[in-house]
Amino acid sequence: MLYKTLSEFYEKLEATTKKLEKRDILSDLYKQLDKTDLEMVVLLSMGIVFPGKEADLGIAEKLMERIIQKTYGIDPKSYNKIFRKTGDAGLTAEFFAEQRKQITLAKKNLTTDKVFENLKKLPYETGAKSQDRKISLISELLGQASGKEAKYMVRTVLGEMRFGVAEGIVRDAIAKAFDAEPKQVEEAYNILTNFGRVALMARENKLSKIKIELFNPIRVMLAENAESLEQALTKIPEPICEWKYDGFRVAVHKDGDKVKIFSRRMDDVTNQFPDIAELSRNCLPDKCIVEGEVLAVDKNNNPQPFQMLSRRIQRKYDIEEMVRKIQVQVNLFDILFLNDENYMNKKLRERRKVLEDKVKKIPNRFQLTNAIMSNDIKKVREFYNQSLKAGQEGLMIKNLDGEYKPGKRVDSWYKVKPTLETLELVITQAQWGDGKRAKWLSSFVLSCRDPETGDFLQIGKMGTGLTDEQFEELTKKLKKLIISEERGMLIIKPTIVVEVDYQEIQRSPKYKSGFALRFPRLKKIRYDRSAVDIDNIARVEKIYKQQRK
Questions:
Q1: Whether 235 is catalytic
Q2: 3-class secondary-structure state, position 258
Q3: What contacts 145, CB < 8 A, 6 or more positions away?
Q4: Across the chain, how many H-helices and E-strands are there?
Q5: What is d(CA 186, CA 174) in angstroms, rounded to the nearest whole number?
Q6: Which residue in 22, 134, 244, 493 is the catalytic one?
Q7: pTM (2 decimals)?
Q8: What is the predicted pLDDT for the residue at 103?
Q9: pLDDT confidence band for 102 (50 / 70 / 90)
Q10: 269: nearest Cα among 311, 306, 301, 227
Q11: CB 340 within 8 A of CB 287
């Protein structure tokens, strides 16, 4: 398929704001593709190259400026002049692609396959002169591209497609293209985590035959929030009550000596946690997928702040030193797969029993979650207080007769915490501070997400609850994500997720979400979350209504 043809579909998507029209445009595109192109084009139509998360090809805005300047033989001054008018690197590339004085007669038509092939290489270019090789891979494509092709290629690399195609629209487009039910498509995606592969299965009418695959991450099951222990026990009369750990959720896949560890956002973090991998080899059944919470602990096994764990999550080098400095504790709570058998459809009481029987426990290192099976409010409240006293967040109340529902937030799991439910939001704008904080970004606009369009909706501004170290840390991270500046406000690529406390949620016309957080304060920087995982507008509204009661 020619990249020109895909660019024409991009143009159609950008020309409409209507979800149904976007669905129909994508459906028409998917139907005309052969088996060879379908998986690749479905991913590209979402503006990504790698499935399961947002595109992160390792190319920042500043590097893209250099690539555009090199490809079209322009200086920084000329680039900045056009960029100030467009505010978009894609439109800037389009301008210079169309302004080229010489176009080689032997210029080849750019294929989608060639674009995909080059972009897939980007994250794997490491070591000496890796940046030069990345520049060459993109410059080669831009050199062959028309204006429209250059625009969308640059936007794909930067993860800023700007035409509002999120998972819900792609799900419905696949369903319409291949006469499937949207629910069936979504259930397949929750297992495969790749809409390209799901489209192939739908095309061949094989959605009902999808199976769990070891080392392919599954979307995790999520819990609802309960206002109180009493409410949770009313909804789940026969529960297992587990400590809600202030940690990092992982899924461990094992087949013999091969082990992979995935984060909640489906990143492979095996290299950052070689100690967990080794414990898994020694303590887990030969072929399985288990889930658990990882804590940072001191030498006396006391829990350490989440930010200590974040340092290990982010670390790419000197892993052995970090393993010595920050010890971890694994607390397992579920098993999804064992010896080629899917356990997600089994009741939780059976899954828990298998964990108890099959896992070799090492106290304070590799163990099951602290849990009781009781609906006695007095016992449960005492257990809840023990969790808080131990530095944990509260309790998880789970239905012993419930199945595991990947990718869903369902009413068979509830979490109970002592404060208003925190929100996980993404930073979309920032401002420089003044006085003592003049060297730091010190005011951050937070946004929730519209899951249908993928748009980020502003909900408040945060400037408190951060230490000087965290201001410095966020400034360093966010400077690399600056897209543009508008009247003193920096527009930030939605990447950094934060968990915030707040006094209350109010209705407000000031922000695009229609809500405003009153006195939001940073609780954690969540490097284990991606922007697609943050709380959505429906959840904000639900918490708002709960608080009104």
A1: no
A2: strand
A3: 3, 97, 110, 153
A4: 20, 20
A5: 10
A6: 244
A7: 0.84
A8: 53
A9: low
A10: 311
A11: yes
